[in-house]
Amino acid sequence: MSVHVFNIYGITCNSCSGAIKSVLESTEGITLKNFSVDPDSTEPKKVTIEVEESSPNIHDKLIENIVDLGFRCEPLSLFERILSAHLPLGILGSVSGLALLILSFVIPVIPLGAMIGIGSFSTALTLFLGAKSFKDAWIQWTKAGILTMDTLFTISTLTVLIVSIISFWIPWLPMMFDAGLLIYGFRHIGIAIEDSVKEKISTVKFTDRAPKIVEKVTPNGIINIATNDIKPKDQIRVQPGEIIPVDGICLDEHELYNTILGGNPLPQLYKSGDKILAGMRLSKHATPLNMEVVNDVSNSYLAKYDQCIEESLKNKAPIEVQTEQLLTYFIHYYLVIGKKLITMFLSLLL
Where are the domains of the chain? Predict the structure, then answer.
């Protein structure tokens, strides 16, 4: 198994990324395990592709298929790969910031020479940790005219650094080099956790939990068929302990676990004629369940579950939209106040 990360130009919508994924899935010699597009990345889009193969030419084969679709594909540079390692960067920033914070309490008075060295190191490390955020904030503001969380992080971090540097000449100003490190340390850790959760959610399919082969009841007896070949009006038999693969009507009395509906861990009694949904599970101690199919696999309750998860990953929740709107107003006021403070500071100096 191998993981490949690319910068791909030309991805403007979900259909674009869907086309790339579809082609890679159908390409001989490529077994696609995971395909994810970073929704927060600007042009080019950062795309992570995980494949079963680890042969030397698989990297070039992926690029060839992507380019054949009309997209421009480039591997991430060494610097971009380093900035994409959010967890190590988060640990580096958090540990450095906490160490500096503890040092300020343990040694209240630090010699000027040591402080200059600490300040220089902290400033350089903060700028390194926030490099991608600074770049994204600038692009989003200059090209799209929007203010995002990256803008807020950029303003707050640069403000902290500027005030801390000026404090060498104006002692009554606070020296907060640790703050910038902690801001981006926690941010990188947060992004790492978010990426991990998204990756796990995006690779989980509820339909994969259902049996791939089912027993179909026919006038000539029972035959085994693929679950995808089940059609409405078919009668199938589900064995004890198995998950119901499709929606249907119960033809006899059974105890089923409907945990997927409301989280109830106890089995419930379903009688003949009751509607049952894909994702329910037949008790291990029950007899085989006979049911009549109502919906095929693609329209089943489990399939709708997967569709909802996919949509939730693509779209923003209402609270995210409202937060971004509030953030826009907040940053505008932040800029206005900052401009006033700078003007006041310059007038005092002059």
Answer: 2-76, 84-203, 209-298
H helix intervals, the chain? 14-26, 58-68, 78-84, 86-106, 112-129, 131-144, 149-166, 177-203, 259-262, 301-314, 318-349
255 Cβ contact list (under 8 Å, min separation 6) = 267, 268, 269, 270, 282, 283, 286
CA 150, CA 232: separation in Å to the nearest integer?
A: 51
Distance CA 29, CA 67 (A): 17
Q: State how far the Cα of 86 lies from the Cα of 94, in Å rounded to an integer.
A: 12
Q: What is the rounded CA–CA span in Å between residue 152 and residue 150?
A: 5
- Is there a contact between 154 and 133 (Cβ–Cβ < 8 Å)? yes
In this structure, which CATH number among 2.70.150.10, 3.30.70.2740, 1.10.287.130, 2.60.120.650 belongs to the domain 209-298?
A: 2.70.150.10
Q: Give the span between the Cα atoms of 78 and 16, in whole angstroms.
A: 26
Question: Beta strand 281-282 with 289-293: parallel, antiparallel or unpaired?
Answer: unpaired
SS3 233: coil
45-89 pLDDT, tens digit per residue, is 788 888 887 776 888 888 888 888 777 787 766 776 777 778 888
Edge to edge, the sheet with strand 72-75 lists 32-37, 45-51, 2-9, 72-75
Cα–Cα distance measured from residue 160 to residue 144, given in angstroms and rounded to the nearest whole number: 26
- pLDDT (tens digit per residue) in 270-283: 888 889 888 888 88
For domain 2-76, give the CATH number: 3.30.70.100
| Under 8 Å between Cβ of 88 and 18 | no
Q: How far apart are CA 227 and CA 246, in angstroms?
A: 8
Distance CA 70, CA 66 (A): 7
Nearest Cα neighbor of 195 from 89, 87, 95 is 87
> Which residues 6+ apart lie within 8 Å of 54 measured at CB?
1, 2
Which residue carries 């791939």 as its tokens?
A: 212
Q: Which residue has the tokens 């206005």?
A: 336
